[in-house]
Amino acid sequence: MSRSHELQNKSVLVVGLAKSGSAAAKLLNKHGAKVIVNDKKEFEQNEEAKALHARGIEVHCGGHPLHLLDRQLDFIVKNPGIPYSNPLIHTALEMNIPVYTEVELASYLTDALMIGITGSNGKTTTTTLVGKMLEGGTRPTHIAGNIGTVLSEVADKTNADETIVAELSSFQLMGIDTFKPHIGILLNLFEAHLDYHGTLEDYGKAKARLFKNQTPDDYCIYNAEDEYVEALVQDVKGTKVPFSTKRVLDHGAYVKDGQIFFNNELIISLEDVALPGEHNLENVLSAVAAAKLAGGINEQIIKALKTFGGVKHRLQFVTTHNSVKYYNDSKATNILATQKALAAFKNPVILLAGGLDRGNDFDGLIPYLKNVKAVITFGETAPKLVKTATAAGIKVVQHVDNVEKAVPVADEIAESDDIVLLSPACASWDQYPSFEQRGDMFISAVHKLR
């Protein structure tokens, strides 16, 4: 049963606007809370603050003054990006004022079946894939959270007969109290966001909060091949459902003889799965487990696995031209991401890479360049990548001005069954405002080949 009535007359301070803060303020106001909004951007340049002020909501802009804590607050909803070291947030916690993220509001607003997905890598791909697996079922399914639409906003429009698949970050999960997914997935854990969390241990604890309120009637899907993940789920109360790409399990999702199984039931052959790469196989296994536990039907699960080629800019299949496959992995803004992309292919690869580096060299790519027949570089980092490719013994190394010019050069080099892969290993900011625009330029150039 929805607990939205519990928000009535609550005194709530929303700190930090952007998309999640604005949505939280509107929802709290809608459900009868007494809302105060605070954002560091000056009111004159703050369109979100102006819109909330027009609704009659009290707004304070231009900083985070401590006097906002002088009134009797029931709790604070903070934007996930604001660190807990912020003086306003730090002082509020010292005063024992609860500090949540808008994800917590979802637990007040809906009884929908909740599937929560977190991990260092693969969240967006897995969330999207689970959503596609549940399409067309008896329960309307919505995708929300860190992937796009604010979770609490979606929650407010759903009921117990519906399903929400939510991508959740560690920042969001640090600010929950009663929030509970019926099905939770922890994909993996790598060192990331340590500037925010401080240590890998604290980062892992934030991720594991996904399971903190689960009971044995709920499910904890976890990566049985990740030692950090295994340690984090040791004491969860939810029913544990492992997945593994490396061994056959007594239950859960696994690979055997080139086929995917869930709880010993054959689901699909690996050769029929559209998503390439070992790292994506982990995402596939976890998605199969979640979809099956959520009541998904095999026909739709199999259809999704055969047709879903990846999230845009994340090892995304673009098209086949003259028997050559083109993949857009513009999201690969560091060496680790490009290593994973290269490891996904066994066919000869023509690698398009370059952009703005972070002062690093690229020697870490050399062991992954064995299948690479040519490297086409662009951007500020081009000289470093030329050096790396030459050291790896690659015979064809060319430099061009940008991604758009790299594509026709790759087309000239490519032979039947080759892979042309944009996986820059660098940020985009030297030439493009975002990795998304860089990827869009690649896609456009590929389609112009026709």
From TrEMBL:
Occurrences of domain Mur ligase central (ranges): 117-291
InterPro entries the record matches: Mur-like_cat_sf (IPR036565), Mur_ligase_C (IPR004101), Mur_ligase_C_dom_sf (IPR036615), Mur_ligase_cen (IPR013221), MurD (IPR005762)
Annotated compartments: Cytoplasm
Catalytic activity: UDP-N-acetyl-alpha-D-muramoyl-L-alanine + D-glutamate + ATP = UDP-N-acetyl-alpha-D-muramoyl-L-alanyl-D-glutamate + ADP + phosphate + H(+)
Annotated Mur ligase C-terminal domain residues: 313-426
Family per record: Belongs to the MurCDEF family.
Predominant location category: cytoplasm
Involved pathway(s): Cell wall biogenesis; peptidoglycan biosynthesis
SUPFAM superfamilies: MurCD N-terminal domain (SSF51984), MurD-like peptide ligases, catalytic domain (SSF53623), MurD-like peptide ligases, peptide-binding domain (SSF53244)
Protein name, as recorded: UDP-N-acetylmuramoylalanine--D-glutamate ligase
Function: Cell wall formation. Catalyzes the addition of glutamate to the nucleotide precursor UDP-N-acetylmuramoyl-L-alanine (UMA).
MF-aspect GO terms: UDP-N-acetylmuramoylalanine-D-glutamate ligase activity
Source organism: Pseudalkalibacillus berkeleyi
UniProt entry tagged with the keyword GTP-binding: no
Top-rank taxon, per record: Bacteria
EC number: 6.3.2.9
PANTHER family recorded: UDP-N-ACETYLMURAMOYLALANINE--D-GLUTAMATE LIGASE (PTHR43692:SF1)
This protein's UniProt keywords: ATP-binding, Cell cycle, Cell division, Cell shape, Cell wall biogenesis/degradation, Cytoplasm, Ligase, Nucleotide-binding, Peptidoglycan synthesis
Record field: transmembrane: none
Record: residues binding ATP: 119-125
